[in-house]
Amino acid sequence: MNQPNATERPDPERELTAGLFLGSGTTQAYRTAMEQAHKAVTDVYLERATPYSGRSPEELEARFEESEMLPEEGQGLTATIETVAQTVVGHSVGTSHPACVAHLQCPPMIPALAAEALISATNQSLDSWDQAPAATALETRLIEELAAVFGYDGGADGVVTSGGTQSNFMGLLLARNWVLDERFDHDAQADGLPPAADSLRVLCSADAHFTARQAAAQLGLGESAIVSIPTDEQHRLSVDALDSTLAELADSDRQPFALIGTAGTTDFGSIDPLEQLGDRAREHGLWFHVDAAYGGALALSDRHREKLRGIETADSIAVDFHKLFYQPLSCGAFLLRDGDRYRYIDRNAAYLNPADAESGVVNLVSKSVQTSRRFDALKPYVAFQTLGRDGFGELIEYTLDLAAAVADRIRDAPAFELKHEPTLNAVVFRYRPPTGPSQRGDEINERIRDRLREEGTAMVARTSVDGETCLKFTLLNPRTTVADVEEILAAIERHGEALAPGGRTAKPTRGSNDR
Ligand SMILES: *Cc1c(COP(=O)(O)O)cnc(C)c1O
Question: Which CATH class is domain 28-109+388-515?
């Protein structure tokens, strides 16, 4: 390779950089590249009639086995994108397809896709102001506004995160450092965990997200620090069970220090009684963290905001924009009711100029557990400006209405058993096979899901309820209609009958059926 002459002024036409970097004289190359990417999405991804191509893991693995990952010589962008369109985009899950109703992966909204292009083109990092001046100001304002949306007052603070995992981790990290400071006069940030930390316990419902357990492990408290509280028949944390657990713990050498409420459990979308949990947290001196990764979006709906009542009493909140706010991955937020409590994790790298704080310059690195950090705040900002709160509210309300209508269909159909009354837009149910051992029912439900994916007809999730395999729709897509879901239900029935032909026992009457 010839040694580039770095002393010469860059020439946009020179071979080394041609078509590779943004700058004057490269706009055509940029436009061509973006148009190609756009075309791969519109012509390959969106043109597919089904939400998945049906390729098996083996087929996909085989395809990439033959593919050279780091060729000696490049083949140029045009050929590369064409290959990627066929091998990757063409076999990606159609998150925007109306029959893609499996997980909490939302169809990303177009305003956010435009924002995403701006985020990567400007490539600013939010760790220090001098790397992201306007972005820092915008994120700071967005967090302020979001805090107000959840009923926090002026002292709140927070940061944009990679999602619920990170936000939940931050909540427990702050709670841990807070309790060690408050009760043990111990600086965990400086000195690690004291022996007394063995006694610390975190309370959350049995249906809380697994990242609570994960965070406890990562924070050195161990998974055994999680005390799991039973849920009621609607999969909400049972306050009676919480009370008896608190009484039990008071008589033991274990010390609860944090209570996690979930606003929208991943499986059922259930919302814990946040107001009562907030009361208990105050009475017992616990840090109250609300995991609103899924359900936080209800705050934008006039009809459903009420369901989050009590969230404003939380010490910290986790919200995901990449779920019910329709932003592409990744995008979440962590909110802290009393922003001064950031001092419990306050550390700054000298090169990021912590002294700037005195001159009024904010370096957001001190509010995050990340250093280099994307300007993901731009996505919800652009989306909020485009749609307004009303627009968002309507989208969310539509999907909740859709889930209720789908639940009605399932409740009334002899071939199905509805497992809960939906709170958000998740609907858990089971295909009722003809009589036989219930294990066989598990297998049939599992096979139905696999067959739908193999045909590409629909992407449906599977979950387990009281040891039984069930199917789950997560109806996030505002373009999905009741008719679309009826088609999926018909396909489920068709596969179910093919897998287990025969007559079915009468469906239990209402009341015994919907638990
Ligand atoms: C999705 C989810 C999480 C995890 O969030 P990520 O954004 O995937 O990191 C945590 N809690 C709940 C309730 C969730 O739905």
Answer: alpha beta
